[in-house]
Each structure stands twice: as C-alpha cells, then as structure tokens.
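Support request, please re-run this one:
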Amino acid sequence: GPLISIAFWVMFGVIYLSAVASRHFHDDRVARGGGLERYEGSSGTDLEGTSNAYTDSAHTDSAGWHGVYRGATAFHFLFCGWCATWVVLFVRCVVSTVVVSWYWAREGDREKRLAEMSTWRAFRRVALCHAGSLALLAFWMPALIAPRIAVGAYCKIRGLVGTKTPPYSVPLAYRSAAVCQIALHGCSLRRACFNQHHLKMRNSEIVRKCERAADGVMFAGWVCVALASFAICAGLTGVDFLTIRAVRWTLAPASCAALAGTVVFFAFFMAHREAVETIIQCFCEDTERN
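Re-run finished. Output below.
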C-alpha cells in the first residue's frame, strides 16, 4: 500500500511539476516576446541597445526559473526515493522481528514464542521503537553508495577482506544488514551498523557462502523481471527493426520499464532477503555464544 502510494505520488508530482514548468515558460516567453515587440514599436528611434538589455534580463530571469523548477523536481524525486527506502527498511525490520522471535526463546518454548510474535505485534514494535533509526538509515544508505564502492574496491585491491576488513569504516558498516541487529538487540543505529559489520568480519566464510546463494537467486529473478519488462514494453510500442528511428525511440520506454521492473522486484523480494540475512546473523551469533 505505501509503495503504491509513493509510486503514484512520484508519477503525478513529477508530471504536474513538468506541466506547470512547461506552461509557465511558454507563457513567459509569449508575454515577454509580445511586450518586447510593443516596446520596440512604441518609438521611431533605434532602441537596439535597450532592447538587447531587456532581452538579456528576460533570459536571465527565465534561466533562474528553470533552475528553480528543476531543483524542485529533483528534490521531489529524491524525497519520494527516501520515503520508499524507509518503507522497504521498515518492512524488512518487521520481517526480521518475526524471524528472530525464536532466538531468545528457551528450549521447548520456541513454538509458543513464534505464535505470540504476530505480524501486527512486530509492526507495532518497529513503529514505536525503531522508526527513527530506520529513517536515518534510509538517508545514509544512498548517501554512502559512492564511498562504499570506492572503499570496497580499495579493500579488494589491497587484499583487506574477511577478518582484515577495516573494522571502523562507516561506508562499509552503514548497510541494510543493520536492520537485523536493530530487531535482534533493539540497539541504536550506529551500534547496529558496527555490530553487523564486526559479526560478518568474524564469520566471513559462512556469511560469504550463504550470501552467494541468496544473491544468486536475487540476480536470476532480477534478470528475468528486467528482460521480461523490456520485451513486453518493446513489443507493445511496436519495434520496427527496419527503421532506425523507430528502434531508437522505442528503446527509451523499454529501458524505463526494465528499470521500473528492477525497482519493484528488489522492493518486494528484499523482504525474503531480510529473512535470509536474519537467519545468517542469528546463526553466527548462536555459534559464537554456544
């Protein structure tokens, strides 16, 4: 429900802002053009210098408004992206809260604990206790993508993997895997991020094997969804392989459909990925404790 609402919010908001901007710039150009013609025709003298100054001022004002509308559209899109990321992390935390309900149960009491931890109870706990941490994580995760890629590439080149990974690297620690630690221990965001980072460092071999299996399934599903979306959109828009122009204009909507399919696939299947992530971390902690 929330993701559908955000999707419609993005669609109508971006379309509305674009339409308003287009109408404003069109009316502005027509008004300024008509005013300039009347201004130039009102006198028989040559007002070339004055008209040039007037035109430069009009271009400057129009460029300023262009920047305002483009900035508003970009901010609107990024804000909706942050909301969608927060919703996905919220759902992942609810899933993780349900999955970890057996972890603290005593022997023979796990079935009862699993029955007690309903989805509504997990939702209420996450909403009351962890919504702020998840909102902050939804901001830091996209902001640290570029530093994370750079640090990860540097570590692989230098051989700093497994137990040799930098233990206090913020780009490597602030990842979605911290959701499990938030659900498991109810700790703050910073402590959860570094807890999962250090836990995976100490158990790098088993974590790598489990994540490869889960990532392989996710990759196969993503390829299937993206290619299916691309093929369906390309077929519906009528690709003509004998005309270069038709192919070129069809690739854009087909690529957008593949991108949208990718976003939808990962948004929903991340809940399954979080269940796998929670089982991995619980297994590693259980191995260390016992």
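The first helix runs from residue 2 to 41. The chain has eleven helices and no strands.
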